[in-house]
Design brief:
This protein is of the alpha+beta class and 154 residues long. It has one domain. It is built from one helix and seven strands; from the N terminus they run H-E-E-E-E-E-E-E. Strands 4-3-5-6-7 form a five-stranded antiparallel β-sheet, covered by helices on one side. It has a two-stranded antiparallel ribbon with strand order 1-2.
Length: 154
């Protein structure tokens, strides 16, 4: 009487295929985790850029128009119009969105706001280049996101 079942060769081959598949799946886990971390960092950076741009745009006009003023939420100095020399402001932010003008142990993101010269005409838009990089203390950032904002300060 012949019993049904798998031979030793078939079982060994099946275990080999299963082990190979598991090794491949376990090898993909670190790649997936790194990709997820990068996506989280980029999402946070874009949120910071959006918040900064909204703060700069919400800053009220000065009287007379085009004078130097600080933004309301982040206290970023917006230079007087026309901007004749490049002006740079740096802020450090933590995971919760708290900011400081100096880096500390909780700083995760570095925001650099650059106001390039916009010409001699005082009626031109004030331009701002925003760049968020992480980690904040690194000389060469792991990642960054940037945006450009034109402000009507007239």
């Amino acid at each position: 009487m012949k019993r049904g079942g798998f031979s030793l060769v078939e079982v060994t081959l099946a275990l080999g295929v299963a082990a190979f598949c598991l090794i491949v799946v376990f090898g993909l886990i670190p790649v997936g985790l790194r990709s997820n971390q990068a996506a989280v960092e980029q999402t946070a950076a874009v949120g910071i850029l959006s918040s900064i741009a909204a703060d700069l745009r919400a800053t009220p006009r000065t009287s007379p128009a085009g004078q130097k003023i600080a933004s309301q939420r982040y206290a970023i100095d917006i230079p007087a119009n026309p901007v004749t020399t490049q002006s740079v402001a740096t802020l450090f932010l933590d995971e919760d969105g708290n900011w400081s003008k100096t880096a500390d142990a909780k700083s995760r993101y570095r925001l650099t706001v650059t106001f390039p010269p916009n010409g001699a005409d005082s009626r031109r838009a004030t331009l701002a280049h925003l760049k968020v990089s992480w980690p904040s203390s690194a000389a060469e950032p792991v990642g960054y996101a940037e945006s450009f904002v034109a402000l009507d300060r007239n």
